[in-house]
Amino acid sequence: MRVSLFWRLGLTYLALALAVFAGIYWSSAAGVSSDAAAAVRHSLWLAAASIFVITAVVSFTFSLLFSSRINRVKRFAQRAAAGDFTPLQRAAAGDELADLADAVGGMVAQLGQTIHTLTDERNRSAAILGSMVEGVAVVGGDERILYCNQAFEQILELPQGSSQGKKLVEGLRQADLVTAVRQVLPGGDEVTGEVEVGTVRRRSFSVTAAPVRAAEASSAVLVLHDITELRRLERVRRDFVANVSHEFKTPLTAIQGFAETLLGGALDDKANRKRFVEIIREHARRLARLTDDLLKLSRIEAGRLDLESRPVSVAGLVNGCVETARLKAESRGLRIVVELPEGLPPVRGDAVQLDEVLQNLIDNALQYTPSGGRIDVTACSNGHEVIFTVADTGIGIPESDLERIFERFYRVDAARSREAGGTGLGLSIARHIVDAHGGRIWVESAVGQGSRFRFSIDVAS
After folding, report:
1. Fewest CB within 10 A of the end CB: N or C in the chain?
2. Residue of 75, 68, 67 lying closest to 105 (CA atoms)
3. Contact call for residues 394 and 451 (beta carbons, < 8 A)
4. How far apart (Å, rounded) are the C-alpha atoms in residues 134 and 196?
5. 353 & 451 share domain
6. Which residues are registered as beta bridge partners of 222?
């Protein structure tokens, strides 16, 4: 049977007290002389004093041991409160204090495991939210931002790390977002909508505000999903349908009109019937070119463009395209200048497709450069790619049009392009061909100062 520390101390004091009282009683009960009794009493007092001294020493020793063990448990509890959950070494004694230490140690171990689990879940959630491209924010019932990820601050152009703890109206400049959150904070239904943010470059975002019902207080989760590309594609699709309809309508109307004119009696008009037929043929050719470009663009965008990659001479490619365009340039009073450095390495690609890209850029330069102007065709290498440049002294392109210049059917000067027989698909096809070769194409231009189209193709290894 285990005897506790307190019982051991109590039994020690009881035994000593009984011994003293027994001695005094014996001296009183025994019939001894006064001198002898005094000697006995003196001896007993000495024994009692010795016993009390021994008792005090023993008690002090036990007190030190007891205090040391209490302080050991206390320091362990303080370490646990500071986050150090190192287990407490089990004491050899098997008393109540050891049981208390074991209970505290078990409680701290369980608490440490719970905190470790919660920390892992928090870090995992923070990592997931931090890596999301969607903006996420949690707003408390007092309309303060409790949490937001980095994407949320980037979307709303807020200083990084400055939003948490702020009032919603202080951090957000979008009144629609504030209104959506206020609708769901009292426990309302989920709210969805759409907002546009940004000053220079506008972007569209789908907004979802959902309530979070907790026992303590209500809050709301705000999610922003970027739908800018989706809206752009919808706009491009609408423009494409409208442009295709318009491009087909013009030549079809002309063909129908002149055909009806001929059938209405113009066949007998020897002076004009040939001209009418030539006009019909020209519009039919325009429809054929438009159809061919549409089919080619569709094939390219579907990934069905077959490229026969092989080393292509830069000088041969440039000189071939320039010679094709030189007669047209002379008829318009334009000068084409070619500058090619010595030792240009060949590029890897499909010679026919690259010829179409360069020819398209040169034709555009001829079309939009006034008489007396100049077109420079150059190429240079930086070691791993060759950069082709077609620069002109033409009318230039407004800055607002530069981002859309490679879209299908997009024209800076639509009337002039149609008069020259352009389909509005050349630059879009050129961009797709260059992308298929792993290169890039871009333009630099200013109104009244001309344009500079560039594209890069990797050097043949």
Report:
1. N
2. 75
3. yes
4. 15
5. yes
6. 137, 209
Domain count, the chain: 4
Per-residue pLDDT of the chain (461 residues; tens, 9 = 90+): 344 555 555 566 556 656 655 655 555 555 545 676 677 667 767 776 777 777 777 777 777 777 777 787 788 778 777 777 777 776 666 667 777 777 877 887 788 888 888 888 877 877 777 777 788 888 887 888 888 888 888 787 777 777 777 887 776 777 778 888 888 887 777 888 888 877 667 788 888 888 887 646 678 888 888 888 888 888 877 877 777 777 788 788 888 888 888 888 777 777 788 888 888 888 888 888 788 877 877 777 777 777 888 999 999 999 999 998 888 898 889 999 999 998 899 999 999 899 999 999 998 899 888 888 999 999 999 889 999 999 999 888 888 777 778 877 776 655 444 444 456 778 888 898 999 899 999 999 888 888 999 999 999 87
Claim to verify: residue 268 and residue 323 sit in the same structural domain: no
- Write the CA distances from 4 to 79, 88, 453, integer angstroms: 28, 21, 95
Structural domain containing residue 243: 230-301
pTM above 0.70, yes or no: no
Is there a contact between 181 and 143 (Cβ–Cβ < 8 Å)? yes
In terms of domains, do 368 and 381 share one? yes
326 shares its domain with 415: yes
Residue where the block lists tokens 């400049």: 173
Q: Which residues contact 387 (CB under 8 A, 6 or more apart)?
A: 379, 380, 381, 454, 455, 456
Rounded to whole angstroms, how far apart are CA atoms 432 and 425?
Answer: 11
CA pair distance 227, 203, nearest whole angstrom:
8
| 67, 94, 123 - which closes a domain | 123
Tell me which of 182, 208, 226 is where a domain ends. 226
The backbone torsions φ and ψ at residue 2, rounded to the nearest 5 degrees and listed phi first, read -80, 130
| Terminal Cα-to-Cα distance of the chain (whole angstroms) | 90
- Rounded to whole angstroms, the Cα distance separating 163 from 169 reads 11
Cβ atoms 136, 163 nearer than 8 A: no
What is the edge-to-edge ordering of all strands in the sheet holding 385-392? 335-339, 374-381, 385-392, 450-458, 440-446
DSSP state, residue 235? H
Q: What is the CATH number of the domain that holds 248?
A: 1.10.287.130
Which has the closest alpha carbon to 460: 434, 435, 440, 437?
437
**Residue 208 DSSP class:** E
